[in-house]
Specification:
single chain; mainly beta; 35-stranded mixed beta sheet; five-stranded antiparallel beta sheet; globular; disordered C terminus
Length: about 575
């Protein structure tokens, strides 16, 4: 099951034109970076490795050391070791699997020993970026990024702060624990066997974005002990919690933060527990939960509790689409100064859509429908929460002063004068209308606002300025698509590839060559760019017009964006 997302990835090629400063070859297990200057490039040659340890690397803020795969896949695999890939005592380092054009994940990490982590960042490492790595088969977590507190205090709070960690465009699947386990769980102290209490380090500046997790044993993403700069955005979490080791370890995304947090544009499908869980670890806490899609959780779509902390804090629930489960979003913390819930779409929740507690509550423009059919969503169980024609959520949102939203899960930002739809998807394009759709265009009036407390003004945190999405080129004319065209397209592409041909797709002004079709997902390659595009993302609502030849040799797709 793949979600409807489109990801444009710039490649970092290690080629003859960019001579590496160090080459790592199969058979080498430990790479000492102490002799490398900031800005150095390390090429890891394609092949099989049992483990890879990178230690003592020292880049600079403007000159990180880049470690990249070269000339193919670097596969790191073992049955009995404590890790597959580990970064120890490193600063300002980027580990990237984007070294070979056309290869989605240039590093593959697997360690099947029970309780072990496939990719580990430890020993006082900071300023680390990891991308385009595939992790599977880990005995426990796919990514483990934290140091355990120690008796000597070297990695404990007050002596070490982990800073600026970025994990993006990675694929984690079929692991026994969490997909991403970042930051320590026991922020308020980890009791030792001798009765002493050790306090783990905190994290400042953590970004987890554009990752895909599937069939993780516990949460797809779990974050703890962050104090500032936390952003968990644009991730896809499919079927997490398939074999949790303990109760309450089967949710989609879990965040326990001691500072500000942004959770936006994530797609969570099918957790046995809740879609999102979390709570404040300190007072003056502020979290924004924005434009997320949660579908079919076994529990609530979202839960935020921990009433011991949160005084002076703010929770913002903005433009989310919450489908199924035992309820929508529950905020169970009366100590919060303000809870803001605006323009959320609550669909087929067995319990209450919103359950909010706090000193001041703003509940405006939220829409509840009883059934999935009534909601008019394209295909939420496949990760597509876009609105079909006639959905009651179209145009039913309310404008709120000073509310600054980022783009939707497809990266679209509506124009300032656009209508306001309820839910996660922005109305940048005409609403989708699949074959057979027949929904009533009219609906009941949107719920009236409910406020409580002295000050009901909306005071959301100012989000980071989103990147401006590329403006697609317009075609002059869209083609009517036949029924079942998407399936026909997959068959035609697979036949062409099997015959050794590589059809061309034209998106806007650029041509991309079809490299593979796997699980209904296109892998495309162009000049210095790769593009992953689920076939389900090619929708008539987005104006994707197709012209196919008999042998699919010169297949062409033209992107047309209709005006709002």
């Amino acid at each position: 099951m793949r979600a409807v997302v489109m990801c444009l990835v710039m490649m970092v090629a290690v080629s003859a034109a960019q001579r590496p400063d160090l080459v790592v070859k199969p058979g080498q297990a430990v790479v000492d970076g102490s002799g490398l200057a900031p800005g150095a490039v390390v090429a890891v040659a394609a092949g099989a490795y049992e483990t890879l340890t990178f230690t003592g690397f020292r880049g600079a803020p403007d000159k990180p050391i880049v470690i990249a795969n070269a000339k193919g896949l670097v596969r790191v695999e073992n049955d009995n070791r404590g890790f597959a890939i580990v970064l120890r005592d490193c600063r300002h380092v980027r580990l990237t699997g984007s070294g070979t054009p056309g290869l989605d994940y240039g590093f593959s990490a697997e360690t099947r020993r029970q309780g072990m982590m496939a990719v580990h960042v430890v020993d006082r490492s900071s300023f680390i970026e990891i991308d385009h790595v595939e992790v599977t088969g880990a005995g426990f977590a796919g990514f483990n990024v934290k140091d355990e507190p120690k008796a000597d205090g070297s990695t404990n709070r007050g002596n070490f702060v982990m800073e600026q960690i970025e994990l993006h465009h990675n694929y984690v699947h079929d692991v026994n624990g969490e997909g991403f386990y970042v930051g320590h769980t026991f922020y308020h102290g980890h009791k030792q066997k001798d009765g002493s209490v050790l306090y783990p380090h905190v994290i400042k500046g953590l970004k987890i974005h554009h990752n895909l997790t599937e069939r993780t044993g516990c949460e797809g993403i779990q974050v703890g002990s962050t104090v500032s700069g936390l952003e968990v955005t644009d991730n896809i979490v499919m079927q997490p919690g398939v074999k949790p080791f303990a109760k309450w370890q089967d949710n989609g995304i879990q965040i326990n933060a001691a500072g500000d947090a942004l959770v936006a544009r994530n797609i969570i499908v099918g957790p046995p527990g809740s879609g999102f869980v979390g709570g404040p670890l300190e007072n003056d806490y502020r979290i924004r939960f924005e434009r997320n899609l949660v579908v079919d959780p076994g529990g609530l779509c979202g839960y935020l509790g921990n009433g011991e902390y949160g005084a002076g804090g703010t929770v913002e629930l903005l433009h989310n689409t919450l489908v199924g489960g035992k309820g929508g979003f529950k905020v169970a913390n009366a100590r919060l100064a303000q809870v803001i819930a605006v323009n959320n779409f609550l669909v087929a929740n067995a319990g209450a859509g919103l359950q909010l507690s706090g000193q001041d509550i703003i509940d405006e423009g939220n829409l509840t429908v009883a059934t999935l059919a009534e909601a008019g969503l394209v295909d939420p169980r496949a990760g597509n929460g876009e609105l079909r024609k006639g959905s009651p959520a179209i145009g039913r949102g309310i404008p709120v002063a000073k509310l600054q939203l980022g783009p939707d899960p497809l990266g679209r930002q509506p124009a300032a004068r656009s209508r306001i739809d309820v839910g996660a998807w922005a109305p940048s394009a005409p609403p989708a209308e699949p074959a057979g759709a027949d929904l009533a265009a009219d609906a009941k009036d949107a719920p009236r606002a409910r406020t409580r407390g002295k000050d009901a003004s909306v005071k959301p945190a100012k989000p980071a300025k989103p990147a401006k999405p590329a403006k697609p080129a317009r075609s002059k004319k869209a083609t009517e698509l036949p029924s079942g065209w998407r399936e026909q397209l997959v068959v035609a592409l697979e036949a062409a590839l099997a015959a050794g041909r590589h059809p061309q797709l034209t998106l806007g002004a650029g041509e991309l060559q079809v490299e593979a079709v796997r699980d209904g997902r296109l892998s495309l390659r162009g000049r210095d760019v790769t593009l992953q595009l689920p076939v389900s993302a090619l929708s008539s609502s987005q104006g994707m017009a197709l012209a196919r030849s008999a042998d699919a040799e010169d297949l062409v797709a033209q992107w047309e964006q209709a005006s709002d």
